[in-house]
Amino acid sequence: MNPFIPIVLVICISLSGSESAGLAGKSLIFPTKTNTSFVKLKTPTFSKLSAFTVCFWAASEVVRPYALFSYSTSRSQFELLIWQDINGMFYLYLGDYGAKFSLPKANGLLRHICVTWESQGGVGAAWINGRRSLQKVGGKGQTVKGSGEIILGQTKDRRHGTYDINGCFVGEISDVNMWDHVLNSNQIKMLSQNCLCTGGNIIDWNTIGYTAAGNVKIQDSKRCQF
């Protein structure tokens, strides 16, 4: 043995709040009501969107309003907000435009949720476990601006721009993906049955960079893995 061969020690340090990459096979658990727990996804690279599909799995047992998906820009705190109210009504906000969908109330069972919208006709819809809601029309000609911030677990207060504890999400959410176009009904049904595992071209859950803060648990979900 050569006594002059150097010994190199590699020390790995986990830094709280540092960005990580990829959430394949993982779920985010938000166990308590708070205004300090959230997951921030890496800012997507687009200038504007004239159509989109956002899909994810979620479950919550809380009986109060909360945000499921929040995207804000310098123009609007609610550039794209998906919201559930106390009565189970489901809302899509695009800046000043809002669409309301009457859907079954959330509970402790995970369900697959998609929201679609396109600017040309202003047609939007919500999908639960592969089944489409009544379509709503509004926001025709609008676009979703880029260079914004995607937050899971929280949304901002309209007046103060800070996180609102009364709108925080408590429960489990996973497989958040976003596309720059409207997926067809067959694709959405296949996603809801775990028969299609392709990530979105705007948000890809398998590779997205993210930062977790506060009391957020990242657990194995084993969903959509072959």
Explain what you see.
The chain is built from one helix and 18 strands. It has 226 residues and is mainly beta. It has one domain (38-220): Sandwich (Jelly Rolls), CATH 2.60.120.200. The protein has an eight-stranded antiparallel beta sheet with strand order 1-17-3-15-6-7-8-9, with no helix packed on it. Strand 8 (89-94) and strand 9 (97-102) form a beta hairpin. It is globular, with a radius of gyration of 19 Å. It starts with 19 loop residues before the first strand and ends in a 6-residue tail after the last strand. The model is unreliable at 1-16 (pLDDT under 50).
Secondary-structure topology with pairs:
Elements (H helix, E strand, L loop, with lengths): L19 E2 L4 E5 L7 E4 L6 E2 L1 E9 L6 E7 L7 E5 L4 E6 L2 E6 L8 E8 L4 E6 L2 E2 L3 E2 L6 E2 L3 E4 L18 E9 L5 H8 L16 E5 L3 E4 L6
Antiparallel strand pairs: 1-17, 2-16, 2-18, 3-15, 3-17, 4-14, 5-10, 5-16, 6-7, 6-15, 7-8, 8-9, 10-11, 11-12, 11-13
